[in-house]
Write a structure and sequence with these properties.
340 residues, 7-stranded parallel beta sheet, 5-stranded parallel beta sheet, 13% strand, elongated
Length: 340
């Protein structure tokens, strides 16, 4: 196993680890056994000032995907006393961390990829079903006492069999969604930065669509699974939403910034698309209240990874990354800066 002591900062025998949010009790207990750990029992998100103070007082910071750690914060922590040696993030995403700045200051960055793949794919399929069958608005009719009883032409939604599922971002989660959607008889088409090998396409009976606009126009259901970044902010803007079929639905379990919410609100309120399923929002935890009054919308509070199994596995992966670092090895989940 390759050593990293020459590249990254010196490693203490029992590191001080600060965790920014509550983890599962079993994970916190194990961390307390292994490290000099400082937990966050109130589970309130840290302010920027609190994060800066934590980064100057620990060897390992354990943030989550909602903690923004920019270059200025990393530089300040490095210049203070050089104690911070590792940022071990809980979650797969890394866009909240300036990885290049961390690398420049010899600070290790790790994440926990893959552990939430099935959970997020399951939730994506749930949203596809809920939106397609209009469960939310029909359930609301029931709760409000407006249901007049069964009828052959009322409360109708769309079946999934034979429909075209457009997947934007065919990584782990996108492929897991494709695997599930095939069981419902859906036709899989995808757009990705790089085309998948033919064997993988054959496994999902998936067709690559190089032009995103073409995929948007073809899809009966469009689901987003690409990372957030400068090139994907408002990937689904007013122009692209206008390309969707009037009968189509948009699902997002990726990042809230992928959709221009103003454009989505306009499209749904004017019934220019049939529906949308959202598990993420542009300004979490604030959610635009106009979304809740829109026809065809199903909204969930960022539940994609919210299972005991997934969160437990992420905690174990997190601990393993720290222990690899303590042993002087490169953790399997070390994150490197993206190439231009």
């Amino acid at each position: 196993m390759a050593q990293h002591s020459e590249t990254f900062r010196p490693i203490p025998p029992r590191p001080r680890v600060i965790v920014t949010r509550r983890l599962l009790p079993s994970v916190e207990a194990r961390m307390a056994e292994l490290f000099d750990v400082v937990l966050n029992p109130e589970d309130t998100p840290m302010t920027r000032a609190q994060l800066e103070a934590a980064m100057g007082d620990c060897d390992v910071l354990v943030p989550t995907v909602t903690d923004t750690i920019d270059a200025a914060m990393i530089a300040a922590a490095a210049e203070a006393d050089g104690r911070l040696g590792m940022i071990a993030s809980f979650g797969a995403g890394t866009e909240h961390i300036d990885v290049a700045a961390a690398r420049a200051h010899r600070i290790m960055v790790t994440n926990t990829p893959g552990v939430f793949t099935d959970d997020t794919a399951d939730l994506t399929l749930a949203l596809i079903i809920l939106v397609s069958r209009r469960f939310s608005e029909n359930a609301q009719t029931l709760r409000e006492g407006k249901w007049a009883g069964w009828g052959p032409s009322v409360m109708l939604g769309h079946a999934l069999g034979g429909k075209t599922l457009g997947i934007v971002g065919m990584g782990r989660i996108g492929q897991a969604v494709a695997h599930r959607a095939r069981a419902f008889g859906m036709e899989i088409r995808y757009h990705n930065r790089h085309r998948l090998p033919g064997a993988v396409e054959n496994m999902f009976a998936a067709r690559h669509v190089p032009d995103l606009d073409t995929l948007v126009a073809e899809a009966d259901i469009l689901t987003l699974h690409c990372p957030a970044g400068p090139e994907t902010i408002h990937l689904m803007d007013a122009r692209r939403i206008a390309l969707m079929k009037p009968s189509a639905c948009l699902v997002n379990t990726g990042r809230g910034q992928l959709i221009d919410e103003e454009a989505l609100i306009a499209a749904l309120s004017q019934e220019r698309i049939a529906g949308a399923g959202l598990d993420v929002f542009a300004r979490e935890p604030q959610v635009d209240p106009r979304l809740f009054d829109l026809p065809g919308l199903v909204a969930l509070p960022h539940l994609g990874s919210a299972t005991y199994e997934g969160r437990g596995a992420a905690g174990e992966r997190l601990i393993a990354n720290i222990r690899f670092w303590l042993d002087g090895h490169r953790p399997h989940d070390m994150v490197l800066p993206q190439l231009p």
